[in-house]
C-alpha cells in the first residue's frame, strides 16, 4: 500500500451468480480524507462497502484497508475500523451509558479505558442528563450522533458511515457533519455513503457509482467543472442518464 493511502482498491469485483453487483472498481483513499461514495439504490455502493469492512468476500480483485488485505485478514480489518449503519448502530433497549460500555467491550478496550472514554463522550456531547435514558427513547438525530461517537471509541484509522444522516433534520445534519470534520482533522479517515447530493460538496473527493462501476471520481469542484454543472446533483443526474 502506498504511503498515506489507508484504502487501496484495484479491480474489486462482486458477483452473485450471473449478476455483477460491483464491476472491477479501482480507487484509493488517503489518510484523514473525507471520501464520499455516491450512487443510486442498486448502484453497488453498499455491496462495495461490505467488502471493504470485511463482512462480504470479494469475487476477485484486490483491496487493502488499514494496511490489511480484505481477502486474507478480514478480522484485522474489522479491528482497525469503525462502522456506523443507518439501520443498526445502537441497542434501543440499553441506556446511552450501557451502549458505550457494551461497544467499548466489543472493541477490546479495558474497563478503565471504557470508563474514561464514556465520561469524555458524555461530557463532549452534553449527554449528562440523558446518559441513563434508553437509547430507544431518544430522537433519531441524537442516536446518530451517539452512534458516530461510539464508532470512534477505539480510535480506528477509518470510519465507514453508511447513509449516516438519513431521516434527520437539516440542523442535525449540519451538526453531524461538524463532527465528521473534527474527526477528519484529528486524522481519522471518513468513508461515507450518502444520497444527499449537497453533502457530496462537504467531501474532499467523491466517487460516483452507476450500475456497479465507478463512472467519476474527483473533488466536487473538479467534477462540477468537468460536467459543466452548478451542483453535485446536476453531475449525478448527468451520469445517471448516461
TrEMBL record:
Coiled-coil parts of chain: none
GO cellular component: membrane
Annotated Pfam families: ABC_tran
Residues in ABC transporter domain copies: 7-236
Cell location: Membrane
Record key words, sorted: ATP-binding, Membrane, Nucleotide-binding, Transmembrane, Transmembrane helix, Transport
Keyword Membrane annotated: yes
GO MF terms held by the record: ATP binding; ATP hydrolysis activity
InterPro entries per UniProt: AAA+_ATPase (IPR003593), ABC_transporter-like_ATP-bd (IPR003439), P-loop_NTPase (IPR027417)
SMART domains: AAA
Signal peptide: none
Entry membrane topology: Multi-pass membrane protein
Name of the molecule in the record: ABC transporter ATP-binding protein
Organism field: Aureibaculum algae
Record lineage: Bacteria, Pseudomonadati, Bacteroidota, Flavobacteriia, Flavobacteriales
Amino acid at each position: 500500500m502506498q504511503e498515506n493511502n489507508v484504502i487501496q482498491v484495484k479491480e474489486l469485483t462482486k458477483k452473485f451468480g450471473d449478476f455483477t453487483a460491483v464491476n472491477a472498481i479501482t480507487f484509493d483513499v488517503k489518510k484523514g480524507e473525507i471520501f464520499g461514495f455516491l450512487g443510486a439504490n442498486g448502484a453497488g455502493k453498499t455491496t462495495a462497502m461490505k467488502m471493504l469492512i470485511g463482512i462480504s468476500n470479494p469475487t476477485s480483485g484486490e483491496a487493502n484497508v488499514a494496511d490489511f488485505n480484505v481477502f486474507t485478514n478480514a478480522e484485522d480489518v474489522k479491528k482497525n475500523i469503525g462502522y456506523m449503519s443507518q439501520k443498526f448502530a445502537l441497542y434501543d433497549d440499553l441506556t446511552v451509558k450501557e451502549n458505550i460500555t457494551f461497544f467499548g467491550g466489543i472493541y477490546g478496550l479495558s474497563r478503565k479505558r471504557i470508563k474514561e472514554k464514556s465520561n469524555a463522550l458524555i461530557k463532549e456531547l452534553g449527554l449528562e442528563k440523558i446518559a441513563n435514558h434508553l437509547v430507544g427513547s431518544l430522537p433519531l438525530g441524537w442516536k446518530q450522533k451517539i452512534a458516530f461517537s461510539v464508532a470512534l471509541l477505539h480510535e480506528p484509522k477509518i470510519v465507514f458511515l453508511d447513509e449516516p444522516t438519513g431521516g434527520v433534520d437539516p440542523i442535525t445534519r449540519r451538526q453531524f457533519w461538524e463532527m465528521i470534520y473534527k474527526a477528519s482533522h484529528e486524522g481519522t479517515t471518513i468513508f461515507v455513503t450518502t444520497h444527499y447530493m449537497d453533502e457530496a460538496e462537504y467531501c474532499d473527493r467523491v466517487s460516483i457509482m452507476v450500475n456497479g462501476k465507478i463512472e467519476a471520481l474527483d473533488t466536487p469542484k473538479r467534477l462540477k467543472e468537468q460536467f459543466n454543472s452548478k451542483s453535485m446533483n446536476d453531475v449525478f443526474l448527468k451520469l445517471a442518464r448516461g
